[in-house]
Fold this sequence. Notes:
Among the domains are: 40-245, Collagenase (Catalytic Domain) (3-Layer(aba) Sandwich), CATH 3.40.390.10; 351-447. It is an alpha+beta fold. Helix content is 19%, strand content 21%. The termini are far apart. The strands form five sheets. The chain has a six-stranded mixed β-sheet with strand order 3-5-4-6-8-7, with helices on both faces. Strands 12-18-17-14-15 form a five-stranded mixed β-sheet, with no helix packed on it.
Amino acid sequence: xxxxxxxxxxxxxxxxxxxxxxxxxxxxxxxxxxxxxxxxxxxxxxxxxxxxxxxxxxxxxxxxxxxxxxxxxxxxxxxxxxxxxxxxxxxxxxxxxxxxxxxxxxxxxxxxxxxxxxxxxxxxxxxxxxxxxxxxxxxxxxxxxxxxxxxxxxxxxxxxxxxxxxxxxxxxxxxxxxxxxxxxxxxxxxxxxxxxxxxxxxxxxxxxxxxxxxxxxxxxxxxxxxxxxxxxxxxxxxxxxxxxxxxxxxxxxxxxxxxxxxxxxxxxxxxxxxxxxxxxxxxxxxxxxxxxxxxxxxxxxxxxxxxxxxxxxxxxxxxxxxxxxxxxxxxxxxxxxxxxxxxxxxxxxxxxxxxxxxxxxxxxxxxxxxxxxxxxxxxxxxxxxxxxxxxxxxxxxxxxxxxxxxxxxxxxxxxxxxxxxxxxxxxxxxxxxxxxxxxxxxxxxxxxx
Length: 449
């Protein structure tokens, strides 16, 4: 059996590479080999040793593997699809919402799913910039009740489980590739109020995962990451996948020996973290990560332009020698952190109203807004200012709640007045002015005595 497994793994890995690592970086001109099968493009995680150079892309069927029809009891049906807000940081309209769905959990194992979901959230927020910006996130759990416990393909390729989402290892013949039935996933995600990112936790300790990084046209989320709930390194795979879906980052690993990927000769990619340019050219042209050149990076290197990236051994360069977009367990490098923060603010606003903004406030009312704490950040990073009819009320700086009566000396007539709060994040991790402009938000109310 062990030799048979090795043979399946070897065939699967070769097929995945022949499928091309199906996406060349950005709008790369090099024509990738045709995918082996039609279907959904997914990213294959690297081997368990953390070297993502063993990963790639392939195409898999969106419906997952054939499996038995579910046979849930009335009790199980009643529990199936229940939604809970595990982390509440504010309105879904103003926060980045992660929806976590479990697979391979029976009705009696749902408490285990909730504990696994919380543990994965803690793994995610142990990595910057998630640590600092955890207050911008809501996390929802959706209970998916499986008829059987566990995941297909664990422990062996011929293991089949009757589960809600049809998770299975050995997807496309690759042991660590953990695929799902996307329609089933969407059915559960749709039960949550909103989804910006989706994480599927499969009830297994076996290493594996997958990245479905295409935006959902129907539900609007940025992508699906799959991970083994009981494997810490699988959590790193999920975080890496958010580098693609949220940060719009390219992979920084490359294949030195794969035909067709020895040298990139296409145009400058759109991705923010790979380039055809040298460090000197980045500086001269003021482009990509030029603002970070020469700075020590969290991943242990110095920001420059290092040969190899976007799957190509030469012709493309990456910002640092190593980072989470190249090796699991590494931090995001400085340009990667900036790109992730930009992704957070594409989906979230730093200030959101608690007091409704669609009614006129009177003397006895209190005006309140929600501005999340930025954990571990410099206290000077975040500013909160109030303005009355466009003029700053400096004594109110830093407050998130104001009584209208405190403004009475300024409201001596019967005209309508506009009171506004502006919150702005001055993160030292962002040097791009275009990104910085997205890191402020204003909430306004109408007041009349």
